[in-house]
Amino acid sequence: MVRKLRCSWWESLSLKQYHEKVVEHYNNPRNVGSFDKDDPNVGTGLVGAPACGDVMKLQIRVDEKTGKIVDSCFKTFGCGSAIASSSVESMP
């Protein structure tokens, strides 16, 4: 689950350093959620960065016949740029 954070004056000032698309994906992340881990057509990747405390789980659903990715979702716990980049990566 992605939590929206209330920004202080100082944090809102630092948001200006990010491109507007990054801020948009942070404020309105796409494809947040998770798939059934027991589904044989679902693959899960989990990555974390101990130095900054970010943890990201990305899941994809693959069409059994074509082998193509048909859906994706993510859950990220971490900073705004981690949430935004997970959102962008989950887009088709």
Automatic annotation (TrEMBL):
Q: What is this protein called?
A: NIF system FeS cluster assembly NifU N-terminal domain-containing protein
The signal sequence is none
Q: Where is the NIF system FeS cluster assembly NifU N-terminal domain?
A: 17-88
Q: Name one Pfam family in it.
A: NifU_N
Gene3D superfamilies, per the entry: 3.90.1010.10
**MF terms per GO, please?**
iron ion binding; iron-sulfur cluster binding
PANTHER family with a match to the protein in the record: IRON-SULFUR CLUSTER ASSEMBLY ENZYME NIFU HOMOLOG
Q: Which organism is it from?
A: Ceratodon purpureus
* Biological process (GO), any one: iron-sulfur cluster assembly
Report the CDD domains cross-referenced here. Answer: IscU_like
